[in-house]
Amino acid sequence: MNQFIKIRRDLHKIPELGFQEFKTQRYLLSYLQTLPGERVEIKPWKTGIFVRVKGSDPSKTIGYRADIDGLPITEETNLPFSSEHEGNMHACGHDFHMSIGLGLLTYVVENPIEDNMVFIFQPAEEGPGGAEPMLKSEEMLEWKPDIILALHIAPEYPVGTVATKPGLLFANTSELFIDLKGRGGHAAYPHLTNDMVVASCSLVTQLQSIVARNVDPLDSAVITIGKIAGGTVQNVIAENARIEGTIRTLSPEAMQKVKHRIEAIVKGIETGYECKATIDYGAMYHQVYNDENLAKEFMDFVQKDEEMSLVHCKEAMTGEDFGYMLKEIPGVMFWLGVDSENGLHHSKLLPNEEAIEKAISLLSRYVTYKGKRKN
């Protein structure tokens, strides 16, 4: 078995939520300490890690980011290496991302390229967001890359496929939490209460009008309400209700417009249902915007590669906090085909492990090419 497939399986067993990746960090550090240390510097950061590999004749620094956290999903794959942490799962492929990152790091340690490389093992991508604070850290300021790369597994593409595009790749995203507080009471006396179940249902319905009637039809936005909670028992009118959802837009301007309309509608609910409401936007992620020139160069490289095929994909409503890094550092993110029947964030996600070796091989060739002084 390829050692990085074994690493992926080891990591798959120990998914941990954002900024709780203590076992994961220890595992990564344990592996890193097995590498020759002459050109390798390691700096832990919270539950993440920075690693710098010195080049043979550096003129710039190439960055590579891999996210490390899992999701609060109960695994249903029946794999012999299923999650040992009940209720948590690597259902977004971050176990793949880490093993590929370690594979590339090992390659550049054993086969020095001219330029320096900085590897960023980032916590909390799924929330509350690790990229933005990591970007502002002293470690990043000291080792800040000149360009940066990252990938995300793509269940819908076959193994051996890379999909990306210049410019906008992933959407602007924001969590959405709305709490409503009214006056509860006995189910037989609704006229003495302010029913927050009724208010929350009305609010959800009105929120759906925003995309249909307030967003430019030539732009794109999504408001999804994934959870409603309210009340206690069947014969008590609810005093409280909570709505949880997500907002996704293809432009920052649309995000501002959507939030403005949400706030206006919520004020109307407060007046109409004589209640109080609070809005929390939670974690907000900046769009993933690939540098035009670097993306075209990377796509040309893949297109000429005999082992991989290239798909020029469309932008997606997926959210990724790597967008914060791309806001500050020119770079490229791409989809890596892993051919799974079930998609991201699914309890039965089964990515094909053959993609791990293919990704390490491709990235090794690319950073060797990119790490030469002429580039």
Structure, explained:
- By secondary structure, this protein is an alpha+beta fold.
- The chain is 34% helix and 26% strand.
- Strand 1 (40-45) and strand 2 (48-53) form a beta hairpin.
- The chain is elongated, with a radius of gyration of 23 Å.
Topology:
Elements: H1 3-12, H2 22-32, E1 40-45, E2 48-53, E3 61-67, H3 94-110, E4 116-122, H4 131-135, H5 138-143, E5 147-154, E6 161-164, E7 167-170, E8 172-181, E9 185-186, H6 196-214, E10 221-230, E11 236-237, E12 240-249, H7 252-273, E13 276-280, E14 284-285, E15 288-290, H8 292-304, E16 309-312, H9 322-328, E17 331-337, H10 354-370
Parallel strand pairs: 3-4, 3-5, 5-17, 6-16
Antiparallel strand pairs: 1-2, 2-4, 6-17, 7-15, 8-12, 8-13, 8-14, 9-11, 10-12
Helix pairs in contact: 1-3, 3-10, 6-7
* Structural Rg: 23 Å
Which structural class is indicated by helix and strand composition?
Answer: alpha+beta
Order of strands across the widest beta sheet? 1-2-4-3-5-17-6-16
Could you describe the largest sheet, including whether it forms a barrel?
Answer: 8 strands, mixed
Q: What spatial form do the alpha-carbon principal axes imply?
A: elongated
Helical content (DSSP H or I, runs of 4+): 25-40%
Count of alpha and pi helical runs: 10
Record field, number of beta strands: 17
**In whole angstroms, how far apart are the ends?**
35 Å
Element string (H = helix, E = strand): HHEEEHEHHEEEEEHEEEHEEEHEHEH
**Percentage of β-strand residues:** 25-35%
Mean pLDDT: 97
Low-pLDDT stretches: none
